[in-house]
Design a protein that fits this description.
Length: 365
C-alpha cells in the first residue's frame, strides 16, 4: 500500500513498526507544525499519489487542519484519509468539522494502547461510513480562522432515505435534465421521490409555472409526473443549502429517494457530493468541451455523458483514463427511453431483487 504519514514525534514512536515495515511510505512528515506551514505540508502531500494518508490531529496548533484537509480532499479525492485523534471525545469541534468533509475514519483510542496494531487493523479494514462516524458530528463546521460557521444538517438526514447528488462539470450540460430523468425512473418504479434544487441557476419555479404543477404532498413542494419537487426559494438566505432547510419536509414526505440538483461543481458542491449515498457528474464527451471538464472529473464519482455515443465515451476514456456512461439523446426526461441505462447507473442504491428458487430446486440442493 502506498502510504502518506503526517504525525507527531510521539506518535511516530508508537507506530515505529509501521514506519519501518514494508509499507511503501511515499510521503512522511514527523513533528508539529505552525499555522503557516500546515498548508505547505498538505500541498506537498497532495502532489504525491497515495492510497491512504495518516493524519495525527496533534500535529496541528488549531483549526487550520480543517481547511487544509478540505483542499487535500479536492486534490486527492481517491485517497483514504485516516485521522489519528488520541483520546478525543464526541463533541470535539474539529473532529466534527472533519467528519463534515466526508472523512469518517477517526481513530481515537487512548494513548497507552498498541497503536501499531490499531493502525494496521484500520488499514486492513474497509473505509468507515458516516454511520460509524455519526457520533462525532455535531453539525458545526469551523473555518480556517474560526470566525464563520456553516450549519450542516447531515446528522438529521432521515433514516432510510437514499440521497443522490447530481452536478455538472460546466453550465448547459444537462444537470437538471439528468436529475429529473433519474427521478422519473424511480417514480415509475414505484418509489416515493423528491428532487431538491440547489443549483446556481434556479429553474424549478419556471417549471412549476409552465407545467402548471399542483401542490405536492408536503409543504413547499409541487408535483410533476409523480415527483415532488422543491424549488429554491430565492428570497431566503442563500447561505444555507436548500436541502438542509428542508429536513422536516423530507421526513414528513417519507421519501425513499431524494435527488439534489447541485448545478455546476465547485469546492463546496464537491463536499456535498461526498454527503450523498450516490453522486453523478454530468459532463460532455465533445472534444471542444474537454477543457471545461478535465479538472473536475474523477473516477471517485459516476460520470454521465449526455448526447454521447459509446465510441465518444471510449475515446474520452482512452485519453483521460476517466470512465463514464453514455446517456443517449432523450429530450423528454420523463420518458422511458433511457431506463436500461438508468437501471445500471442506480444499481448500487436500488434494493436487491433475488429470484426465488422453485420448490423442486431447493429440494435438489
Amino acid at each position: 500500500m502506498l502510504l502518506s504519514i503526517i504525525v507527531t514525534k510521539q506518535m511516530s514512536e508508537k507506530i515505529k513498526d509501521i514506519l519501518e515495515s514494508g509499507e511503501d511510505i511515499v510521503f512522511k512528515h514527523i513533528g508539529k507544525l505552525d499555522s503557516e506551514s500546515v498548508k505547505d505540508v498538505f500541498y506537498s502531500a497532495s502532489r504525491i499519489s497515495s492510497e491512504a494518508i495518516l493524519v495525527d490531529i496533534d500535529v496541528f496548533p488549531g483549526k487550520e487542519i480543517v481547511s487544509a484537509l478540505q483542499s487535500f480532499r479536492i486534490s486527492r479525492p481517491n485517497t483514504r484519509v485516516i485521522i489519528i485523534a488520541p483520546e478525543r471525545k464526541p463533541g470535539d469541534e474539529i473532529i466534527s468539522s472533519i467528519v463534515g468533509l466526508g472523512i469518517y475514519d477517526i481513530v481515537a483510542e487512548v494513548k497507552d494502547l498498541d497503536w501499531n496494531e490499531i493502525i494496521n487493523n484500520v488499514l486492513l479494514s474497509t473505509p468507515a461510513t458516516y454511520s460509524q462516524a455519526a457520533r462525532w458530528h455535531t453539525g458545526q463546521f469551523v473555518s480556517d480562522g474560526g470566525r464563520n460557521r456553516e450549519r450542516v444538517v447531515i446528522e438529521e438526514r432521515p433514516s432510510g432515505v437514499i440521497v443522490i447528488a447530481v452536478a455538472g462539470a460546466a453550465h448547459g450540460l444537462g444537470c437538471t435534465h439528468t436529475a429529473f430523468s433519474l427521478a422519473s425512473f424511480l417514480s415509475r418504479s414505484g418509489y416515493s421521490v423528491a428532487v431538491i434544487e440547489d443549483n446556481q441557476r434556479p429553474a424549478f419555479s419556471y417549471f412549476i409555472n409552465v407545467l402548471k404543477a399542483k401542490e405536492g404532498k408536503v409543504k413547499d413542494s409541487h408535483v410533476i409526473h409523480g415527483i415532488d419537487i422543491f424549488a429554491l426559494n430565492e428570497s431566503k438566505d442563500r447561505g444555507d443549502w436548500n436541502f438542509d432547510t428542508l429536513v422536516k419536509e423530507i421526513k414528513a414526505g417519507q421519501y425513499e429517494y431524494v435527488i439534489r440538483d447541485l448545478g455546476v461543481l465547485d469546492s463546496s458542491r464537491i463536499r456535498e457530493m461526498y454527503r450523498a449515498d450516490e453522486a453523478f457528474i454530468v459532463a460532455s464527451a465533445a472534444k471542444w468541451r474537454w477543457n471545461e471538464c478535465m479538472d473536475k472529473l474523477d473516477n471517485e464519482f459516476s460520470i454521465i455523458f449526455p448526447l454521447a455515443s459509446n465510441s465518444d465515451v471510449d475515446e474520452f476514456s482512452f485519453y483521460t483514463y476517466i470512465k463514464g456512461t453514455a446517456f443517449p439523446y432523450c429530450p423528454n426526461p420523463f420518458s422511458k427511453d433511457n431506463d436500461s441505462v438508468i437501471l445500471k447507473l442506480l444499481d448500487p442504491v436500488l434494493p436487491n431483487r433475488r429470484k426465488k428458487r422453485a420448490l423442486f430446486e431447493k429440494l435438489l440442493i
